Amino acid sequence: MSTILVTGASGMIGTYLVSSLLGKKHKVYGVDNKTNELVGSDDNYTFIQSDVTNKDTISRILANEHVDVLVHLACSVDNDLDSYITDTEIKRSKMCDKFIYDLAEKAGCTSIVLLSTTQVYGIQKGREPIRETFPEKGSTNYCDLKLASEKALLKATKKSNTVPVIARVAPIYDAEYTQNLHDRVFDQKEGVAYIYKEGEYGFSFCCIYNLIDFINGIINVPSGRYEGIYNVADTKVITAAEIIEYEKKRYRIGAVIQKNPSINLTINKGKMKTDYRYFDPSASFSNWNIDNTKARRISTFRWTLANTK
Fold first, then answer.
1. How far apart, in whole angstroms, are the C-alpha atoms of residue 288 and residue 205?
2. Domain boundaries for CATH 3.40.50.720 within the chain
3. Angstrom distance (rounded) from CA 188 to CA 281
4. 151, exposed or middle or buried, with CB in 10 Å at 0-12, 13-18, 19+?
5. Which one-letter DSSP state was computed for residue 169?
């Protein structure tokens, strides 16, 4: 089994991942500035309560514990960041990236897995599925944060045996956490859920279990032959109608109004720049179809909204 260092171990994604890794008998070191319910649950789990920007903490683990894989989840929304991404969060992420990749590379880690975002693609036109080769049109603070982290990782491992893996993940959900889905059918300005026509348009999301399976797939290859950028998203888009039905059955959404799409719709890019969770209804008919073909070579992506418990 491998030895894994997980940053952001107490966040939503971090907790799922650590639990999965321990179930597979890996030795796990978790770092976060807040504790989590898994502490003390398994002899293979060592948790260090510390901010990820604490160089001494990270250095001590990587220098002494023979870490095989670093999974860098810290400084990510849906894990440990609030929805408003300010200059403070961007600087904190850069401060962390500046040393953590170099330390992992010098310690001989087989691979480094970075949690990035499909938001880097921005708003794309056309209907062709968005692949890893598509232009990076993102213009949000969170996009800037993650692109900087991606570039820092690729630079640190350019002349190294450490393999970089960048997981550009679509907005996350599980059976209980559906905020990202909810945001696509809820008008924050008017305070009401809405749908255009019959809600046949859709968006790419990522079930948390598909992300965990993907990371496990990377870790389970000792040679680290998987590398580069991967889109990590459910195989099929989830339509607005499906979101409405799912949330209604669970009494998480109230009245829904039907809107008529207009050719004069304009997108509030200013609001979207700072608030990760803000989704402008005007962007509903843009291309949000993320292609995961490359990532499906690593895991099955069998989880959908319908079978997520």
1. 9
2. 3-173+206-234+289-297
3. 9
4. exposed
5. E
Task: Return the sign of the alpha-carbon dihedral for residues 288, 293, 298, 301.
Answer: positive
pTM for the whole structure: 0.95
Instruction: For domain 3-173+206-234+289-297, say whether CATH 2.60.40.1180 is its number.
Output: no
Within 8 A by CB and 6+ apart from 156, the residues are: 101, 102, 105, 162, 164
Tokens of 255: 């009245």
Q: What tokens appear for 107 in the block?
A: 């310690």
3-state secondary structure of 27: strand
Report pLDDT digits (tens) over 223-278.
Answer: 657 899 999 999 999 999 999 999 999 999 988 999 887 655 555 667 789 999 98
- Which residues pair with residue 228 across a beta bridge? 165
Q: Considering only CA atoms, which of 93, 200, 95 is closest in space to residue 144? A: 93
**Strand ranges for the chain from DSSP E:** 3-7, 27-32, 45-49, 69-72, 111-117, 163-169, 172-173, 186-187, 192-196, 202-203, 206-207, 228-232, 238-239, 256-259
